[in-house]
Amino acid sequence: MFYFFTPVSVLHIKQIQCKFIQQIFTVTQGLFTLMTSMKGGGAYSHRESMEKLFQYVYNLPQDQFNSARLHPPCAVCVAGTGSGSLSHAILRTIAPTGHLHTVEFHQQRAEKVAEEFKEHRVGHLVTVRNQDVCKDGFGVTGVADAVFLDIPSPWEAVGHAKAAMKKHGGRLCSFSPCIEQVQRTCEALTHQGFEAISTMEVLLRVHDVRTVSLPLPDFGPDASAQTEPDAREETPPTSTPNHPSITLKTTTPPREMPGHTGYLTFATKPRT
């Protein structure tokens, strides 16, 4: 069982330190590589996989890509590049003929993710802009098949998102951690003429499923089957009756969950 995943750029021999183990390992062929710890014990490294990276490290919901209907050669605009996790997932979907236009307000973050795209050899598929999307937009007009908004005030960027989309329409997806943000975004989408607006919660709740056996309640003898008092016969007490029971599955939600909930809002720009 894997307790944590950390993306690491591995050379032929490299030392890695973390709060769990300190180790030196070499790259080998195969799906796994054994890493021997300097203090005893060890761990296994998993061969690089974008699917595993998104699932364990970035925890991206697949619904974003299914609802946006992305495929090559789609052009996509993203506001709020952040760590670049969503951008990498989109590039995985629209490559090799699509293109991504991503906007990041924070300068250092934009420079870092641009360098990361080059290291991952996808720089030719991405255009990174350092600007405020709520004021300056995406820097393109009429080119996007889909737009993703992951910013604090997405309702302020809805107009720019509509302008960036193609004339024949497109899909918009907005992520917000608070329902109040969702409400304001939906109002802006309606005002801009978007259709088929829908919202879904994305927090995965893992329930504990168990099979239990519960006794059925004993309500006593049936009153309709009783005889008149003078006609009843005394019967000696019997042993403790064997009450019937029922077997069923139960689920218990977790009391605490790492992270916070979030909401994905989808909308469609009609043809113009």
UniProtKB/TrEMBL annotation:
Compositional bias ranges of the Polar residues kind: 236-253
One example of a Gene Ontology biological process annotation: tRNA methylation
Keywords, alphabetical: Methyltransferase, Nucleus, S-adenosyl-L-methionine, Transferase, tRNA processing
Tree of life domain: Eukaryota
InterPro entries per record: SAM-dependent_MTases_sf, TRM61_C, tRNA_MeTrfase_Gcd14
UniProt GO cellular component terms: nucleus; tRNA (m1A) methyltransferase complex
Domain tRNA (adenine(58)-N(1))-methyltransferase catalytic subunit TRM61 C-terminal, first and last residues per copy: 69-269
Residues covered by region (Disordered): 215-272
Single GO MF annotation: tRNA (adenine(58)-N1)-methyltransferase activity
Location within or outside the cell: Nucleus
Catalysis performed (reactions): an adenosine in mRNA + S-adenosyl-L-methionine = an N(1)-methyladenosine in mRNA + S-adenosyl-L-homocysteine + H(+)
Enzyme class: transferase
Pfam families: GCD14
Entry EC number(s): 2.1.1.220
PANTHER family from the UniProt entry: TRNA (ADENINE(58)-N(1))-METHYLTRANSFERASE, TRNA (ADENINE(58)-N(1))-METHYLTRANSFERASE CATALYTIC SUBUNIT TRMT61A
Name recorded for this polypeptide: tRNA (adenine(58)-N(1))-methyltransferase
Organism this protein belongs to: Monopterus albus
